[in-house]
Amino acid sequence: MGCVCGREDLTINNRKFYIKSRIGEGGFSYIDLIEDANNRRLFALKRISCHSKEDERVAMQEVEIMKTFHHQNLIALEESAMVSVGYHSKTLDITCDVLIAMPYYRKGSLQDKMEILRSKGEKMPEDYIWNMFIGTCHGLRALHSHNPPYAHRDVKPANVMISDDNNPVLMDLGSAAKARVETNTSSECRSLQDQASERCSMLFRAPELFNVDLGANIDERTDIWSLGCVLYGMAYLESPFEKIYQRGDSIALAVLGCNIKFPDFSGYSGHVNEIIQWLMTVNIAERPFIDEVIAKVETICINKV
Length: 305
Hints:
There is one protein chain. The protein is 37% helix and 23% strand. By secondary structure, the chain is of the alpha+beta class. It has 2 domains: 102 residues, 2-Layer Sandwich (Phosphorylase Kinase, domain 1); 195 residues, Transferase(Phosphotransferase), domain 1. A 7-stranded antiparallel β-sheet has the order 1-2-3-4-5-7-6. Strands 8-11 form a two-stranded antiparallel ribbon. The protein starts with a strand and ends with a helix.
């Protein structure tokens, strides 16, 4: 990395970029807006700081998953690299950054759009909601139909970007993992629960990931619950559990009890609330798979035309 004429730059796989600004930050990484030095195209650069071999493994798993999937509704990988940055002061382990360059979406995320609409006292048109929802479903189907199936495990409005042609792109595959897990020991239950607590946003987390039972069969339908939360968010501009969170009440109890409140008047067809309730079935064994969801929503959209 270097600095020329006041412009900080970095090179990934012999490809030079200029760093323009910081555009995001999370618990495990931060994101910069970068510009290709050759063609001036803008990209987002995710920089994951690793302080152990386990950190490196998790970060590189995200890279490998991004390399595996190529779908218009899933975030694409532009470039990636692992860069050594020094030694950890206590363990003397070499620390590194994993760099992931990906497309930049100037329209932002569904979460950004929800916040703008809420500030204006406006709402999303129902046709727009269904378009965003079905596109997100198609991205998930690519993950769920892989052999073996993958689950995203952190589907939420902030992880759905909006392309220039108003199509959704599901991003942040850092929480993605093989979907089907059997918990045969107490340590396996604790491990999965700890992973979910660390990487799955609480307001969109499926009930089975709050309290992982011994002998549980977890599968890709954890994402279906989260899809229901996203659909609710698009319609009502907040998580179905946002008010409970603001009061400081237990999210886990509300989720396990499926304590969802709908406005008395939404202005939408009855299909919206019907699909939300169907997706947010507490018992994972009774929740639909992604193909069933797509088929049902496409039928709704055809009948609306």
